[in-house]
Design brief:
The protein is mainly beta. About 5% of the residues lie in helices and about 45% in strands. The strands form seven sheets. A four-stranded antiparallel β-sheet has the order 1-28-27-26, with no helix packed on it.
């Protein structure tokens, strides 16, 4: 029996060491602790929230230039979220405070009503409201014009994710239970429930056209839902213990899933085809999203065996849609019968701040 256990232990150890971690294109440095959250705006900025209580702002185009650090929280920053036009940034923390930052990166409002850490923030599509979810088991609706709290919904479980529909009054909510609920945010009523997961749901995301949802759960699955029929389309074979984060590309064609073993996968949404598998071994994927284009994957990881803090940038390996263009020197030739995959060169961070921050390579 001891011999058998020894053989099994050695086999597992060899399997672990046989896995080669995927090297990022670059690491966006400047934080002094783990990066826990990331959001990208259509104005060309990346925001990262960290356990060091700071928010870093970077330019979203290669070489991802560091731009600014925002200070205002007294605890780890768990979530950052840009609004639809990219001119407002909301941040939430374990200090139970939500800070709203304007287009000049100044604090415009502070919201304080939650009684536990903030887990999720999302803006209504019309830009009038901000929804927040917390470990205190509530969802709060904030009026961004008046700065007032206009409604509180008792969810009954810690709230992990909020995804608004194109109707600002209807919002999907996930939390420490297997169900995903659609709330009417003014009447506080549950309009419908999506059943399928068998353990708590950690994250949800909806396509911009409102037709599909992706969800990730502790039940070792990520699932695609058809919101026009409320039916589950497929289960993605993520092959991990817990799916901690999911996201959808701006063109609604691709999905990312991230797990607590550090693995990140890229999928075609409508077919479920696996496009890329990224292994950030020795870490936990906390928040993963697509870059400004589908070329990049931006990953916030909790690191176990390194102090190389910073946002990881990976190649997505998504083939870009073919187009007809001919340029001298740096020429890309593509015709209607071929697809070209653009290889992204290794890039580095360049700072524009007079006081340089630590650079991670």
């Amino acid at each position: 029996m001891k011999l058998l256990l020894t053989i099994i232990s050695v086999t597992i150890t060899l399997h672990i060491f046989a896995q080669a971690p995927t090297e990022p294109i670059t690491i966006l440095g400047g934080h002094t602790n783990d990066v826990d959250a990331v959001s990208i705006s259509n104005q060309g900025y990346i925001a990262t929230g960290s356990f060091d209580q700071k928010i870093n702002i970077y330019k979203a185009d290669s070489p991802f230039t560091y731009f600014k650090t925002l200070s205002g929280h007294m605890g780890p920053v768990n979530v950052v979220s840009f609004n639809s036009n990219g001119k407002l940034l909301a941040s939430g923390s374990e200090d139970r405070v939500i800070v709203l930052w304007d287009s000049l990166w100044q604090q415009s409002r502070r919201f304080e009503a939650h009684k536990d850490k903030i887990n999720c923030l999302t803006f209504a599509p019309d830009g009038r409201y901000l929804y927040s979810g917390s470990d205190d088991k509530t969802i709060i609706v904030w009026d961004l014009i008046t700065g007032k709290q206009i409604n509180t919904i008792m969810h009954g479980q810690p709230v992990s994710a909020i995804a608004p529909t194109n109707d600002a009054k209807l919002v999907y909510v996930a939390g420490a239970e297997p169900k995903i609920k659609l709330y009417h945010m003014l009447s506080n009523k549950v309009i419908k429930t999506l059943d399928g997961h068998t353990d708590e749901v950690n994250d949800i995301a909806i396509t911009s056209d409102g037709k599909y949802m992706v969800s990730g759960s502790n039940d070792k699955t990520a699932r695609i839902w058809d919101l026009t029929t409320d039916k589950q389309l497929r289960i993605l074979p993520v092959n991990c213990w817990k799916v901690t984060t999911v996201s959808i590309s701006n063109d609604n064609n691709y999905v990312t899933t991230g797990c607590n073993d550090g693995s990140v996968k890229v999928w075609e949404l409508k077919t479920g085809k696996l496009i890329n598998s990224i292994d950030c071994i020795g870490s936990i994927a906390r928040n993963v999203t697509f870059g400004k284009t589908n070329q990049y994957i931006l990953g916030a990881f909790m690191l176990r065996n390194t102090a190389d803090y910073g946002l990881r940038v990976f190649q997505s390996k998504i083939s870009l849609t073919p187009f007809n263009v001919s340029l001298k020197n740096n020429t890309i030739n593509a015709d209607s019968n071929k697809k070209e995959t653009l290889k992204v060169p290794k890039v580095s961070i360049q700072t524009t701040n007079k006081s340089p921050i630590p650079q991670k390579k």
